[in-house]
UniProtKB/TrEMBL annotation:
CDD domains: Ribosomal_S8e (cd11382). Pfam families: Ribosomal_S8e (PF01201). Residues 12-27 have a biased composition (Basic residues). Keywords: Ribonucleoprotein, Ribosomal protein. This is Small ribosomal subunit protein eS8. Belongs to the eukaryotic ribosomal protein eS8 family.
């Protein structure tokens, strides 16, 4: 679990005294690591009774080209700046370079939050 409350360190590195103990609503969920594969979606509840659609696996991307938006097939993850191991494990995050049927594209959406992969074709 990831703690999403106030940090116990100041920007300068000094100590910040906690106001109270950690609360359950300050905990985040496990990160959804979207992989390349047969499409698999999962709906999770979020604040206010809303739902988020998470992409567990996907094999297609909406790629923006000069002619418009084209639905392309994802072949592999070429590079991922978030974590070098993600490229080896074919995990798609925002900012990752993916090899598609249209060419190399950079992911602009957050598949673990949006449930879809949107990308822009690289030159």
């Amino acid at each position: 679990m990831k703690f999403q409350g106030r940090s116990e360190k100041k920007r300068t590195g000094g100590r910040r005294r906690p106001i109270r103990k950690k609360r359950k609503h300050q905990l985040g969920r496990q990160a959804t690591e979207t992989r390349v594969g047969e499409p698999k979606l999962k709906a999770v509840e979020s604040w206010g009774g809303n739902t988020k659609t998470r992409a567990i696996q996907t094999d297609s991307a909406n790629v923006a080209t000069d002619d418009g938006v084209v639905q392309a097939t994802i072949e592999t993850v070429a590079e991922n700046g978030a974590n070098p191991n993600y490229a080896r494990r074919n995990i798609i995050t925002r900012g990752a370079l993916i090899e598609t049927s249209e060419g190399t594209a950079r992911v602009t959406s957050r598949p673990g939050q949006d449930g879809q992969v949107n990308a822009v074709l690289e030159e």
